[in-house]
Amino acid sequence: MLEDQEYVLEQVLGYVRAHRPQAVLIAGDVYDKTLPGPEAVRVFDRFLTALAGGADDGSERGAGAGDGGERGAGAEGDGDGSGRGAGAGADGGGNYEPPAVIVISGNHDSPERLGFASRILQDRNVYLYGLFDGQMRRVTCADEYGAVRFYLLPFIRPSAVRRFYAETADAIENSSDAVRVVIEAMGIDPAGIDAAENGNIYKGTRNVLVAHQFFCAGGDDPERSDSERELTGGLDSVDVFTSGIADRFDYAALGHLHGPQRVGAEHIRYAGSPLKYSFSECSHRKAALLVELRAKGELTVTPLPLTPLRDMRRVKGPLAALLSRDVSAAGNTRDYLHVTLTDEDEIIDALGKLRTVYPNVMELSFENARTQADPDLGGAADPGGATPLALFEDFFAAQNGAPMRDKQKNTVRALLEPDADAEADESPDAEAGGDENAAADRAEPPEGSAS
Predict the structure, then answer these.
(1) Domain co-membership, 318 together with 298
(2) Nearest residue to 248 (alpha-carbon basis) of 267, 235, 263, 262
């Protein structure tokens, strides 16, 4: 899907140029595996270069890799903030002033590889935080309202945090504990009063978290898709309330889940992935979030829609209807499709026929009387004195929702009883008189009779 990612991330660059944010946030899962392919690395390199001002004419095309990660644009105009931004086109003129680009590693990334050359890239206003080194990193921007401090927290596990916090290691039992300990160690003042940095005194400092974990709000789990792995025992979930996120940060830009959603409060959000990566995401409206932070406590979040090159959707109906011009012309035939066929008759090479019109059919299923039958397969019943043919008839009816036809019975009977017809052909004539006639045939003729 590299071409699809290139297409959507060109929209990211267009939105960044149009809205001129002070920061662009990428909250992890830049790649979908720890050893991404060379093409994936190249397209992300182009995207990052363009964000940093290396391709301000729009000639370079940017693309994410793997699940695309979460892409973000900061505040519009004179406001600072975080969020996810994406869009198409350029700003129509003027000089492009690169924003601060902030990237953290997710659970799919290799943190060591993602953090390569991070110290050099800081000179270009690009901040990569891959491997957790014991504390959150901080990036500060300033505007007329004061300072905005971005706190970077890559994906962490409790075992990684215990290494750096030996005195509280016993209290770190799960991911929520780990995140809480790391946040508390930063001494973040929720009020943001008299925060000093580099000799400057700021009042009303706005604190922004950029983190990649499975976040929840109390007992309420967020919406998940098939693209995310199942969590076991709740040990990987992080409560935004007990971990200190909800009351310490003015905005939390979260990565990991593919569905855009709030988690417990308006200022705590997953932007979601920029593309759909499973059919469970068909209903998602993919967007980047333009987040405006003006004076402390003043927050505006605007979704910026992302339009895919090829959508991911489900279609259902008989094969002939789906292949008709009326139906195929109603959408993009090159979309990624899950097709459900409702034909009752068997179809030879259904997938091949579908792909003559829809080349990107990804999944095929069937829905008819046979598939909707609900056989009781709980356990094998005692066959009693039933013949093999009778047992097969029961099995056929349970699997197909209809009894066998006479022709089908004859076919199965011939397979199960191949000697039946031969024995019938070789049996003696019915008028021969059975055993008595046979005995008479074997008797010697009476004495004196003609021979």
Answers:
(1) no
(2) 267
